[in-house]
Amino acid sequence: MAAYLARRLIQSVLILLGVSFITFLLLYVLPADPVRQIAGRAATAQTVENIRQQLGLDQPFLVQYGRYLGNLLHGDLGRSYLQKTDVAELIWSRLPASLLLMAGGIACELVLGLTLGVIAALWRGRALDQGLMVGSFVAVSAPQFVVGLLLLYVFAVRLGWFPIGGYGTFAHLVLPALTLGILGSGWYSRMMRSSMIEVLRADYIRTARAKGLDRARVILRHALPNAILPIVAMIGIDIGIFMGGIVVVESVFGWPGMGQLAWQAIQRVDIPIIMGVTLVSATAIVLGNLLADLIAPLVDPRIKLR
Amino acid sequence: MKHWLASTALALCLAVPALAQDYTPDPNAKPGGAIVITYKDDVATLDPAIGYDWQNWSMIKSIFDGLMDYVPGSTALRPGLAESYDLSEDGLTFTFHLRPGVKFHNGREMTAEDVKYSLDRVTNPETQSPGAGFFGSIEGFENAGPDGLSGVKIIDPLTVEIKLSRPDATFLHVMALNFASVVPKEAVDEYGADFGKHPVGTGAYSLAEWTIGQRLVFARNETYWRAGVPYLDQITFEVGQEPVVALLRLQKGEVDVPGDGIPPAKFTEVMANPDEASRVVEGGQLHTGYITMNVTQPPFDKVEVRRAVNMALNKERIVQIINGRAVPANQPLPPSMPGYAKDYKGYAHDPEGAKKLLADAGYPDGFETELYVMNTDPNPRIAQAIQQDLAAIGIKASLQNLAQANVIEAGGAGTAPMVWSGGMGWIADFPDPSNFYGPILGCAGAGEGGWNWSKYCNEALDAEAVKADSFKDPSDPARLAMWSDIYVKIMDDAPWAPVFNEQRYTMKSPRMGGEDALYVDPVSIPINYDYVFIKE
Amino acid sequence: MTDVTASATKAPAGALRRLLRRKLAILGLAIIAVVVLGALFAPWIAPYAPEEQLFDGLTLEGAPLAPDATFIFGTDLLGRDLFSRMLYGAQTSLVIGVVANGIALAIGTLIGVTAGFFRGWIGGGLMRLTDLMMAFPALLLAICLAAIFTPSLWIVAMVIALVNWVQTARVIYTETTALAEREFIAAERTLGAGTGRILFRHILPHLVPTVIVWGTLGISTTVLLEATLSFLGVGVQPPTPSWGNIIFENQTYFQAAPWLVFIPGAAIVLLALAFNLVGDALRDVLDPTQRGRD
């Protein structure tokens, strides 16, 4: 176990190194000069050159990358060119909003997905089941910006139940979290359905039923926990999907999180922020995958650590 | 020759009628109260040497002061931290007499040393100020560095002398720019690069709280040197607020002024509601939206082609697309700018005439080209309207819809044949006609990387511009006439196709008081925080 | 072992018959057929040119027109006929869906098969590459790439392909390793069959069902990614309509003119749904063991 963990951690670090290198390279060849953005429209050529030198952007690519890595080792993500603030501080200030949104998204996808999956499994083969499964396909086929705009239109603009966007209270969170969660709920309801059907077929459930135990009790006490576990173990994998999702959802709802930060930084070639957000996201994805792999054997003995 | 002795507004208007009368505050104005203002984008910095954004420009104005200032709601200069100044006969030496007893927010008294320190700092390349170039006329600017500007001298604790290397009619405007704000050295040293997060100035408000990504709170400076102002006890800026959300919150009474204005989709709705429309203030702004054409490369090296483009545009239709929130433009200067050529008619919409011109230039069947445009609404839409107008005379322009940074890069490098300026357009830094020339139409900006995206360089006009800027009084009618003439000549060469001048529409909550001009202040955008008040 | 090979080649005909017995698959195929026909015959069906900014397409205040008899889907913010733009937008969605997904599928299959069949350092290296790609926030990567290469229809397709091949590669890799360990392959090897023969005669044919399933499901993913990139303004460039960029262009108006957002929105959902339905049905029909998410 310890050896496995060590190997996976080393692998993760190498992957992150690769991500940082590729992103840095992409930003290096980007046909836009961050120095001109910093220098502004009234700047003289001399000012532009001075700024370029101070930021070290006149250095060869590998020197720049090496220096970035060096700073990274000291926990320094650099300083935003245009926001004039440490990237770590910027990300830190945006992180709570994004984490809240992701937590809301996970809650929505689990509650919706698992409930609907169980219902579909219990009513297997009936119209309700079929309807729910078509619904789950619609959920995974709907782009998040369409879902977001639709929810906004119906529940905020028309019905006025929720604020039209923004951040602050629980009411603000509902629609963005739902938007983020719907995609996943489609997958989870399908998986939950299969998992539940499989568990219901299992011998111990049949025995319990044969012993005359109440159906509801059997389902709640025995079948449900066993069916849910392997699915919950997969949440870690969702982090990657969420990292893309927040860019869109935050933009639709004006949610002040990392997605907006990244999007604005890309617009203005604020390289330190783009690098920082990419690395933080990649770290979250790598850790999420690792976590999923570590939990899987705990809940499903058939899976072994590789 | 003293230009003013302005401890009172009366003395000022008697002494120099040419300089506008100072502001007479509303007699009904009451001190007290707090307001809420929203913005979508976070504020990057409140360091006056660095800040150059839409939202921090007016915030910095309220925290800091420069030697010069503007009469609220107007483009007229008035004294700031300098009580008066002298200008030498050759027009090269300014001597500023500072107002005594002005205190920084940290309690220390402001002196001539602070003025020199601040100018040295903003021109020092280490500071990376985007505004350093404005100070180019100060002697020793070329060698600016840690040792400071040789042209700025401290005569005594309340007197500063600034020597110029060439006469510069706009110099007083430059001294009123945020970049020329006076900052205390000890605070800059204490916070270093984070001074922008812990600003200390002499302004009407001081920064009380800043939660990055959420809000900034300004508190009234109780010891502000201008008597009676500001009125408000506190201003809260909430950032990260979508314009649509901000407007809805205004309608609910939670917000007093949406800093980003009325979003396009809500505009018709607001204007259709008499109560809401009555709270919308409209004003000109020193902005022009234009298309640049790269004059160094075919086909735009031919003046006929550039004129044809000017004639092809249906500007009324383009203005309609942005809900009529602009007026069609026929020259680089906006109408509210001194020096605007009122009698100039420009190029009328005439597709047939444009086709003839194209044929004369050797393009009877038109040609293919590219139009660069920034990818945020409404710019791609405007560009498509332009594209259709061009197609009508045979010019097939494909759109290059890119992030702001990429458009600026392509424009600066001269690889973009045409650029629609929207989103990166020129809003004047100070209300003087010269501000629309140097970096964007003059030879100085035409080099690699410069903001003169049409790469138009007319040395004869450059010489005239220098002459016009050698006047001592920026508002001298002869000077303004020269500038009008320069821009009319530019339009003859047509490196640009001016499209429209955006109008500003600011909406306010019912409790906001103060005359309308304060809400469309041409300098303190979006509103003048120092003079507005709460009516209740 | 002969019957395994035979079933792999015979599968398509039988599979099609079984596919057509499923109602949802038929629904999916019908939607796809409508979109394809609309795209193909757009020049004849569309009442206006998609780029034409109609003089009477806007109100005097510059607001778009709601759907009526003249403009059955209304007009957009530039006074263009939305119905015509939707038809031409279908072309964009389909071209990108098919091309980008085709490339992604090709890259994914190539890498998956190579890594799974050859193992060793080649396989290890390739799989590390896919791990690396998995760790990228895909949307951010796509936005960066789109910003570097000025987006045109083909560039957008390439960008999507570049971030979308990973899933296919992983699935194909797993399949290939499983196949390579099967007894009949080992038997072939002992009989002295060459690498090429094993690869082309035995491995690749068995991968066909998986490739078909993933190819179909992948179109759905691709359509969604194209729409998302266009929605963020870094996808297909105007005035070329795509369902995503129609929403991008009009979203600030979605309260006043919801049809401008929800008509193209519904089209994207339907098309993605159709490919998902068909793909899922194909999965059941071609390979009943491949259920679930991955």
TrEMBL record, chain A:
Spans traversing the lipid bilayer: 12-30, 99-122, 134-155, 167-188, 227-253, 273-296
Domain of life: Bacteria
GO cellular component, one term: plasma membrane
Any one of the GO BP annotations: transmembrane transport
Matches recorded under CDD domains: TM_PBP2
Keywords, comma-separated and alphabetical: Cell membrane, Membrane, Transmembrane, Transmembrane helix, Transport
Keyword Transport: yes
Domain ABC transmembrane type-1 intervals: 95-296
The keyword Membrane is annotated on this UniProt entry: yes
Location (main, coarse): membrane
Protein localization: Cell membrane
Membrane topology: Multi-pass membrane protein
Alphabetized PANTHER family for the sequence: DIPEPTIDE TRANSPORT SYSTEM PERMEASE PROTEIN DPPB-RELATED (PTHR43163), DIPEPTIDE-TRANSPORT INTEGRAL MEMBRANE PROTEIN ABC TRANSPORTER DPPB-RELATED (PTHR43163:SF7)
Family of this protein: Belongs to the binding-protein-dependent transport system permease family.
Record protein name field: ABC transporter permease
Organism: Paenirhodobacter populi
From TrEMBL, chain B:
Organism superkingdom: Bacteria
UniProt domain Solute-binding protein family: residue ranges: 77-447
TM annotation in the entry: none
Localization per Swiss-Prot or TrEMBL: Periplasm
Organism name: Paenirhodobacter populi
Protein name, UniProt field: ABC transporter substrate-binding protein
Record family assignment: Belongs to the bacterial solute-binding protein 5 family.
CDD domains xrefs: PBP2_NikA_DppA_OppA_like
Main localisation: periplasm
MF terms (GO), sorted A to Z: peptide transmembrane transporter activity
InterPro entries, sorted: Peptide/Ni-bd, SBP_5, SBP_5_dom
One GO BP: peptide transport
Keyword Heme: no
Signal peptide: 1-20
Keyword DNA repair found: no
GO CC annotation, single: outer membrane-bounded periplasmic space
Key words of the record: Signal, Transport
Automatic annotation (TrEMBL), chain C:
Origin superkingdom: Bacteria
Keywords linked to the UniProt accession: Cell membrane, Membrane, Peptide transport, Protein transport, Transmembrane, Transmembrane helix, Transport
The organism of origin for this protein: Paenirhodobacter populi
Record-linked Pfam families: BPD_transp_1 (PF00528), OppC_N (PF12911)
Topology versus the membrane: Multi-pass membrane protein
Keyword Transmembrane helix belongs to the record: yes
Family: Belongs to the binding-protein-dependent transport system permease family.
Swiss-Prot/TrEMBL GO biological process terms: peptide transport; protein transport; transmembrane transport
Designated name of the protein: ABC transporter permease
InterPro entries assigned to the protein according to its UniProt record, in alphabetical order: BP-dependent_transpt_permease, MetI-like, MetI-like_sf, OppC_N
